[in-house]
What does this fold into?
Amino acid sequence: MNSRENLKRTLNHQQPEHLVLDFGGTGVTGIHCLAVKNLREHYGLEERPVKVVEPFQMLGEVDEELREAMGIDVIGAYGKGNLIGFANNECGWKPFTSNWGQKLLVPEDFNYTMAEDGGLLIYPQGDMSVPPSARMPKTGYFFDAIIRQEPIDEEKLNTEDNLEEFGEIDNETIDYWERTINQLSASGKGIIASLGGTALGDIALVPGMNLKHPKGIRDVAEWYMSTVMRPDYIHSIFEKQTEIAIENLKKIYQRIGNKIDAAFICGTDFGTQDSTFCSPDQFRELYLPYYRRVNDWMHQNTEWKSFKHSCGAVESFMPLFIEAGIDIINPVQINAKGMDPRHLKNTYGKDLVFWGGGVDTQKMLSFGTPAEVKKQVLDNCEIFAKDGGFVFTTVHNIQANVPIENLAAMMDAVKEFNGKS
Amino acid sequence: MEKILERLAYCVEFGKINLASPYPPDMRGQDGADELTKKALEMGVPPTEVLNKGLVIGMGKVGVKFRENKVFVPQVLMSAKAMSFGMAHLKPFFNDGSVVRKGKIIIGTVEGDLHDIGKNLVSMMVEGSGWEVIDLGTDVKAEKFVESVKANPGAIVCLSALLTTTMVNMEKIGKAVKEAVPGTIVAVGGAPVTKDFSNKIGMDIYSSDPQGLIDLLAKLN
It folds into this structure.
């Protein structure tokens, strides 16, 4: 049974031959470029500059060599463009040395200037004639959006302004997806695709880092307030966005068919460390109908599974995610309030695939000992992997500061678990 | 007089900013915190009472409801905005010293960290509990905290971090502050931060939520 068949069994809640692993499949199950370098060294792979496949979070490329060394079963299909609006695939690459001294390769339109305090400013679509859209602090390891909020005139608010980034897909992009998926599907690995357009109010996307002159509601706090203050405005964005997204998915599906196994539909975080960003009632009213529409289309027309990311303490939202037609939940933040692995598996494991939750990244992976990491990984695999429905990955991306000893302990534990299962 | 302060507290509690604000829908067309603060002062209500019996009461209720998961981030932001409109009318009284607050806190996200939603929530709620807040913003280096503590003797320093890669800077900053101005109280918070971590790096106060910090600050007074 190859990786893809194992992933399919896993997603269908059947026991795979071995535990399925994802690192690098999405922008929320990735590895920071510094950790990629450390892993390459650990596995004795050729020393060379790591390619940055997602510059916002500075995620490094998990290439075929590293995939094989780690035993990874899933490949990610990423869009041609990135969150900053320039091509990150089928593009030229140039050398770049980070503030922490790592030699990297970045896309040719990764255009930046140095801020007065030594931080980096990066430009939307690589266009340095407009204000920068994201900033990396001098001692930081990735970017964060620069808020470019124009004054809001209630009378002139127009939903089209918040839909600029959600347009109809063009032929060139459809061709890109067909080429990319065909190429990846030859690998025998499972495929998760970040097709785009279906994220509802993802606060990482709201500031419009890929837009030269973002209009509408772009300030993070203003967006959150708008969900209660201007619900009609938000509804009309979601309504139109969903309509466009489904039409785009139809066009992509016509070309790629069922060559992908899962589609990453939304990264909107609904959880904080110990609560949620909104009430269950508000989720049901404002978000659920649109998720449902996308997922219904997907389930009625494709074999794709719907992958939803939400950090935080979202145990109380799990029944709602299920009702919304979500098949896979990530990152399964097991150290947040109420997110006990055994409780989650016992209560929601028949309906949801847990793609994540393999090891806590806030405390354990960064600050635990190798022995503690190994124990937690084995414990979590024991709980989550029963009867399928579990893709092993860390809770969110592997961060820059994770000690390589802990990553090695994590991989040893997975190997040990697979050996006995 | 009591009635207008009650109404003001109610506006803050439910996020009614001003007359033009459409939120909450059942208060459409009514005065908000902006107009009521102005009117209360015009009626001769002492500014200290406008603060403590109006704005602070409203914000206090929101803080408790937030901790109990009865309201969420959007509602707290609405309340904080309503409060800030009221606070703007009190500014002259803060400046001339006729309204005395509970003390000063200096707050910022630590060096390397740009994530400020949590810091802003804490900042607004602490201000709404009657403290003067000096917000140094994001990605704040130790030197800037030290400079601010020296300029504001007795101020309490609050350090915020969202990331595992930046929370380690709390120790450096906290120690620099304590070394420069011995006796300075330093509080830490943020998603990955815990009481154990706070103790380990020798900080004085940790809270997992804004209201918890307000309660701990109250014990200092």
Observations:
- Chain A touches chain B at residues 117, 119, 135, 137-141, 144, 154, 220-221, 224-225, 227-230, 272-279, 282, 361-363, 366-367, 399-401 (CB under 8 Å).
- The mean pLDDT of chain A is 97.
- The CA atoms of residues 38 and 404 of chain A lie 6 Å apart.
- The radius of gyration of chain A is 20 Å.
